[in-house]
Amino acid sequence: MRLAQDGVLTSNCPSRVVLDHLTSKWGVLVLSALADGTLRWGELRREVDGISEKMLAATLRTFEADGLVHREAYPEIPPRVEYSLTALGREAAEALGPLLRFAVEHAEEIVG
């Protein structure tokens, strides 16, 4: 597969923004966590061990703006907010699956 012909290697290609969002350390993990279904804030924070509140909020905001994550706020006391993948988000999570599997399978030989 040669994507260079699609312009992905040029500095002004919009795909670079998409790649930056999707393949950031926390982006990959948040998408992976949401691939299993809808989660509330606290559940998502526990699922993605080590993510700070600030990074989780920023990642979710970015993915919501990108159309990858749906945020549903319920008018209850206390407030309840749920996050889920959109169809586009599910497609992105599926595409990242092989990369995650590669990382898990080869972590020992790469990291050492």
UniProtKB/TrEMBL annotation:
Residues 13-111 form the HTH hxlR-type domain. InterPro entries: HTH_HxlR, WH-like_DNA-bd_sf, WH_DNA-bd_sf. It comes from the Bacteria. SUPFAM superfamilies: Winged helix' DNA-binding domain (SSF46785). Keywords: DNA-binding, Transcription, Transcription regulation. PANTHER family: HTH-TYPE TRANSCRIPTIONAL REGULATOR YODB (PTHR33204:SF37), TRANSCRIPTIONAL REGULATOR, MARR FAMILY (PTHR33204). This is Transcriptional regulator.
